[in-house]
Structure formats: structure tokens, C-alpha cells
Give the backbone structure.
Amino acid sequence: MVDLYAAWARAKLGDVDISIPVMRDAANKLFETGQLALCVAASGILVETLLERGTQPDVCEAEVAIERLAETVVDDVPVRDVWLLRLRALLARAHGDEAEYRDYRDRHRDMARTLGFEGHIAWAEAMP
């Protein structure tokens, strides 16, 4: 997780091309070692960074990462579901599907409020 967060910080400073492979490797290792609760945040960080860079291969990789997360059973961790709604909203926006984006955004906002997840509430409210 340290490598992942360090790479995320570097990406925010503009070193996206260097950071994404580090994020990808960190996320893969978390999945491989069965650290499923940590996979949720790792997937979220990776997908958001890929979609921010926004090349076609990035969007395709983001889709795969979202599906891998969706197929991962994380017992009693509702944060996976709220992350999935956020990531699917961002993916819909990357595809230019505004109706699907609004649907996922609103569902993300509702779930975040229901669960009382302040960080996700703030993210959801910042989504146009």
C-alpha cells in the first residue's frame, strides 16, 4: 500500500506514466496475496488515475480493473460496492455516456450517505 500511495502522490504531481505501472503492480500483488479489503482502495486509485490520463488503452484497462473488483467477494465490506458505483460513474463519463454517468453518480451519492462514508459523500457531491 505504501508503494501505491507514493505512486498516487507522484501521479498527482504529473508523473503519471511512471506511477501507473507501480500502481498496477501494487494492486496485482494485493489481489495475488488475498488482501481483498486493501484491493478495493488499490483498484479505486488505479482506475481513477487511468481514467484521468484517459487514453483508449487506459480506459480499457480501467474496465478490466473494475470488473476484477466487481468479481471479488469482500465479506462485510460495503465500501467495495460504494467504490464500484463511483468507478462505474467515472467510466461512463469517460465513454461519454451522460445518462449512465448520472445514474451511477446518484447511486454512489445515495449509498455513501446511507453508509455515512464522509469521504465518498464529499467525492459524490463534487461530481457534476
About this structure: The chain is about 80% helix and 0% strand.
